[in-house]
Amino acid sequence: MKLIRTVLGDLDPAEFGLCNAHDHLFFRSALLPGQELDDRAAAAAELAAFRAAGGRAVVQWTPHGLGRHAGELPGLARESGVHLVAATGLHRAAHYERLPAMETLAELFTAELTEGITDGVRAGLIKVAGAFHRLDAHATATLHAAAAAHHATGAPIAVHHEHGSAAAEVLTLLCTELGVPASSVILGHLNRAPDAGLVRELAAAGAYLAVDGPSRANHATDWRLPELLAELVGAGHAHQLLLGGDTTTAAARSVSADGPGMPHLLTGLRPRLTRLLGEQAVELMLRQNPARAFAVAWRA
Questions:
Q1: Is 133 annotated as a binding residue?
Q2: Cα–Cα distance between 20 and 201 in angstroms, integer?
Q3: Computed from CA positions of residues 29, 35, 38, 43, in that sequence, does the dihedral angle turn out positive or negative?
Q4: What is the pTM assigned to this prediction?
Q5: What radius of gyration, in Å, describes the C-alpha atoms of the chain?
Q6: Contact status, residue 169 vs residue 136, Cβ threshold 8 Å
Q7: 3-state class of 82 per DSSP?
Q8: Phi/psi of residue 11, each to 5°?
């Protein structure tokens, strides 16, 4: 049986509900000084606002070493009534002041998926990253470790693509060379890649596509987001699309700052997409697709 591994335990996918498939409650990066997401009260308020807008699930893509505050997640899930999924994995090297030993990564990722990150809070996905238009040594080593952890557990692999680049290289390495099924790979930030033809090719390979940009609604690639989704739906890829907010800075929060935050996915973007694409397609992106993408027949 396939189950979604949440911070409160494994969950029947039918209970997942409307899902923000890529966001951050907590995040601390060396590249974003002064914009840390490390305030529990602000995280709770953001979740409450998302819940009030109809949201029922949030997948947090914050990986190992970037201030996940995994111990806070069960309490936040209980208080908000929102299912939370935590991540293991590793981001680009530039986000870290200090990195774990690369030869330990596969073991680390597997342990956080099976034994837990802290106090029995187990990760439900592996988040990794490519480099800008290429796979550097760090990305290659991290992807190898992610593939090993996937084969040990069945966990999905979610990938940050810097400015939407290097997604084809990631799929070649993970799927062609390392044997990860494309259906277990989630390609993030593809709305930041202006080449719609390339995105269609990536979709044809069978991976899930995470379109995750409303927190940067002033960016050209994000206000073009509906156009890209319409093209992918028209090409027959509606069943592979996921939507997320990707709130990575304190300024992007809706309750404690001036950003659109998590609720915007449902209060701002969802109505626009429903008018453009129809309710059935949007329900797929927000409910059925994430329930399939994050559900696993766990091997450990």
A1: no
A2: 25
A3: negative
A4: 0.96
A5: 17
A6: no
A7: coil
A8: -125, 140
Please state the CATH superfamily assignment of the domain spanning residues 3-296 in this structure: Metal-dependent hydrolases (3.20.20.140)
Would the annotation count 69 as a binding residue?
Answer: no
Distance CA 215, CA 241 (A): 18
pLDDT computed for residue 252 by the predictor: 85
* Token duo for residue 125: 């996905």
The answer to whether 127 is a known ligand-binding residue is yes
Contacts of 153 (CB under 8 A, 6+ apart): 110, 113, 114, 296, 298, 299, 300
Residue 10 counted as an annotated binding residue: no
2 annotated binding-site participant: no
Average pLDDT, the chain: 93
Kindly list the domain boundaries of the chain, sorted by start residue.
Answer: 3-296
Mean pLDDT of 260-281: 94
Give CA separation, 288 vs 113, 248, 291, in Å: 23, 25, 5
* Rounded CA separation 31/248 (Å): 11
Q: Which pLDDT tens digit goes with each residue over 248-262?
A: 888 888 887 777 889
Ligand-binding annotation for 246, yes or no, is: yes
157-169, pLDDT tens digit by residue? 999 998 888 999 9
pLDDT at 86: 98
- The position carrying tokens 């870290």 is 96
